[in-house]
Amino acid sequence: MFTTIALRTVLKSSTGVLRESGSLCSAVSLPPWTCSAALLSGPRVSCVAGSFAIPPPLRHYARAAKKKKTGPESQLSDLPPTMLKIDYSPVPLAQMTDDLVKRLLSLELASHSEKLQLKKEQLIAKVQRDENDRSSTEVQVAILTARIRNYQEHLHKHHKDKTNKRRMLMAIDQRKKLLKHLRLVRYDAFEKVCEQLGITYTFPPEYYRRVTRRWLAKKALCIKVFNEVQKQKAEQRLKMKQSLASADIEAAETKAINTQ
């Protein structure tokens, strides 16, 4: 009985609050679901002596613009746009044409491959032995350096390009082998190449292997087998020496008998 009376009072109070919220929403010209949610939420609305206070509107400020990530400086940035392409630079007639034709033949309207070819020629000119040198180790290192830097710039923008990443790693390994050979054969040329091309040569890391129980057992077995083999070889050498000594003694005895 007491529970039913308490339930009725709670329902009456809730219906009264909902009616007042509906009248308040109509007075303020707001949809009813927003007012009921605001009134029943609790801490946002204060009810004092039958008066309801509407919470101040929230200000949604605009998000700050994301800063673009600045990648490494391109190796082609030092090429002036007024420079002629590599195919037209040795032609004297291209220097005497008007400005429109020069612009068409300059790097301003050149493709990326043409700019990269010009950068390769500049790097080759720094390290080549003479004017006709096109196949020495220094020239190969210069060509690989230009190619590696081009791959690095591409992968900074497209980091999911696995094919070009694999090509870059293969080019880096090939350049390491050439630099290692050049360092052993001509150290002065190795220093010149690293200085002119801006290459930092680092030594390969020392051999490191993770020690496991299986590897330790295998190593102990290999050492045991090696010791047994060395012991057998020592016994065979001893037997060989003894047989040779006995043969020498027999030969000496037969020689002594024959002399008598």
From TrEMBL:
One protein family per Pfam: Ribosomal_S15
Predominant location: mitochondrion
Cell compartments where the protein resides: Mitochondrion
Keywords for this protein: Mitochondrion, Ribonucleoprotein, Ribosomal protein, Transit peptide
Cross-referenced SUPFAM superfamilies: S15/NS1 RNA-binding domain
GO molecular function: RNA binding; structural constituent of ribosome
GO cellular component, one term: mitochondrial small ribosomal subunit
Single Gene Ontology BP annotation: mitochondrial translation
Family matches, as InterPro entries: Ribosomal_uS15, Ribosomal_uS15_bac-type, uS15_NS1_RNA-bd_sf, uS15_ribosomal
CDD domains with a match to the protein in the record: Ribosomal_S15p_S13e (cd00353)
Domain of life according to the entry: Eukaryota
Family: Belongs to the universal ribosomal protein uS15 family.
PANTHER family per the UniProt record, alphabetical: 28S RIBOSOMAL PROTEIN S15, MITOCHONDRIAL (PTHR46685), SMALL RIBOSOMAL SUBUNIT PROTEIN US15M (PTHR46685:SF1)
NCBIfam families: S15_bact (TIGR00952)
Protein name: Small ribosomal subunit protein uS15m
